[in-house]
Amino acid sequence: MNVEKFIEFAKQVGKLKELKRSGWYENADIEKPYVESVADHSYRSALLAVVLADDAGLNSGKVAKMMLLHDLEESITGDIAKPIKDKEDPEKVYARELNAFKKVISYLPEDLQKEYLGLWEEYQEGKTPEAKLARSVDRIDMAIQAQEYFVKYPDKEILKKFSDENDLDKRSPETEEICKKLMEWGKS
After folding, report:
1. Which of 9, 146, 151, 171 has the fewest CB atoms within 10 Å, i.e. is most exposed?
2. Which domain holds residue 142?
3. In sequence order, what DSSP letters do the residues of 57-76 get, joined into one string?
4. How do the residues of the chain divide into helix, strand and coil, expressed in percent and rounded to 5?
5. Residue 172 belongs to a domain with what CATH number?
6. Tell me: the pLDDT tens digits for 79-114?
7. Which helix (H) or strand (E) holds 81?
8. Total of domains in the chain
9. How many Å apart are CA 181 and CA 163, to the nearest integer?
10. d(Cα 76, Cα 13) in Å, to the nearest integer?
């Protein structure tokens, strides 16, 4: 592996440690979300997904890679909140994110670029059991984070919407009960 390129890759993805998750202040009116960065979200999502994948007998290594790769493009595009993305042409959003992802992984050896691009695309398509689980856990982490913020900001009723309006209905069989429970909280 090219050492200089690896270091550049590490610097690029390191930007995720400082990139705050935008949905909390753009959509929930939380002025100062505590230190949750995109990297924080990716870590907890990856850990939760690995546990659920192992429990279900799925390929947890593949799921872990998907979760660690799924938001890398945000080191270039920034964390664009879902309601903003939903107003855009989905093909344009996908193209922008794909190009950014390819740029981030361009520092890596070609064989890894090919593997990681394949995993990222598989995650985006959400058709395999591992991708379905990964996508569901991505949303579960957001719903759990909303609950954690609600404890800190009980006057922010909008946080309850994060449990029922963030695609928890698009769940995998392995996350069915977790999603139902999180959606109940949003209705209370």
Report:
1. 151
2. 3-187
3. TS-HHHHHHHHHHTTTTHHH
4. 70, 0, 25
5. 1.10.3210.10
6. 888 788 889 999 999 999 999 999 999 999 999 999
7. none
8. 1
9. 9
10. 9
